[in-house]
Specification:
The chain is α+β, with helices and mostly antiparallel strands. The protein is built from three helices and eight strands. Strands 1-2-3-6-7 form a five-stranded antiparallel sheet. Strands 4-5-8 form a three-stranded antiparallel sheet. Strand 4 and strand 5 form a beta hairpin. The longest helix has 17 residues. The radius of gyration is 16 Å and the shape is globular. The two termini are 21 Å apart. The protein binds nickel (II) ion. The site of nickel (II) ion (NI) has 6 residues, from helix 2.
Length: 192
């Protein structure tokens, strides 16, 4: 395993569509996922897409701990997942605005509208199909990571660029962005 270098906004690998993986069970994919997980943990991220480590393949890893019904965090170890060739389908029109960060856009935060509920499908490293319906933070992380596979970074999804800011300033001057389920307070977790 190895900690990989993370591409930053401006590197072309973050702008090109990633390639579909023909065989998720290949050792090279297993090794890539192991390195991505180690890199994600080292960098303190919630998720990581292969293009972020200069590999333009449709592979994402993420770790979210959230109750799929209530959208609230769970007091238990977070589930670590690797998905190959993920595809997202929104469930309904509802969107919510919440903060995101990205390891490829270090030191910044932005408020991004995302679909509240999605279904995603893909394949695991064993080649088996993974299919889940999720909401809230879990749904947000998937949308963020899958955007990386299409060459999209979160600022491109923002509808109000006044809400793109340095994390340090965001912490000094909190803004209530009025997220649907935040009860009027600013949520501090951010997808990476
Ligand atoms: Ni990101």
């Amino acid at each position: 395993m190895a900690i990989l270098k993370i591409a930053r906004m401006g590197h072309p690998v973050l702008r090109i569509p990633a390639e579909t993986v023909a065989d998720p069970t290949l050792p090279e994919i297993r090794d890539l996922v192991a390195d991505m997980i180690e890199t994600m943990f080292d960098a303190g991220g919630t998720g990581l897409a292969a293009p972020q480590v200069h590999v333009p393949k449709r592979v994402v890893v993420f770790q979210v701990g959230e109750n799929r019904v209530t959208g609230r965090p769970l007091d238990q170890p977070q589930e670590l997942m690797a998905i190959v060739n993920p595809v997202i389908e929104p469930l309904g029109e509802e969107q919510e605005l919440d903060w995101e960060g990205c390891l490829s856009v270090p030191g910044m935060r932005g408020a991004v509208p995302r679909f509240s509920r999605i279904r995603y499908r893909g394949r695991g490293l064993d080649g088996k199909t993974i299919e889940r319906s999720v909401e809230g933070f879990h749904a947000r992380v998937l949308q963020h990571e899958c955007d990386h596979l299409d060459g999209i970074l979160y600022p491109q999804r923002m509808t109000d660029l006044r809400l793109l800011m340095f994390s340090e300033e965001a912490a000094r001057f909190p803004i209530d962005i009025g997220s649907n389920d935040s009860g009027g307070t600013v949520k501090t977790r951010a997808a990476e």
